[in-house]
Amino acid sequence: MIFYSRLLKERIVFVCGEIEDHMANLVVAQLLFLEAESPDKKIFMYI
């Protein structure tokens, strides 16, 4: 979990494996959080 916290701190969203409802909700929540935190900064997403 520390790995994913570090990625989020660096504005990186990492998606691995099959995307089901839970994973989709988590990704959307992370994107919304990062957008609200700093709307002008880039968000990096790795699939």
Automatic annotation (TrEMBL):
- Entry keyword Cytoplasm: no
Q: Which Gene3D superfamilies match?
A: 2-enoyl-CoA Hydratase, Chain A, domain 1
| GO MF, one example | serine-type endopeptidase activity
Domain of life of the organism encoding this protein: Bacteria
One GO process term, biological-process aspect: protein quality control for misfolded or incompletely synthesized proteins
Which keywords describe this protein according to UniProt? Hydrolase, Protease, Serine protease
Where does this protein have coiled-coil stretches? none
* GO cellular component terms listed in the entry, alphabetical order: endopeptidase Clp complex
Instruction: Return any one Pfam family short name.
Output: CLP_protease
UniProt-recorded name of the protein? Clp protease family protein
Q: Which organism is it from?
A: Orientia tsutsugamushi str. UT144
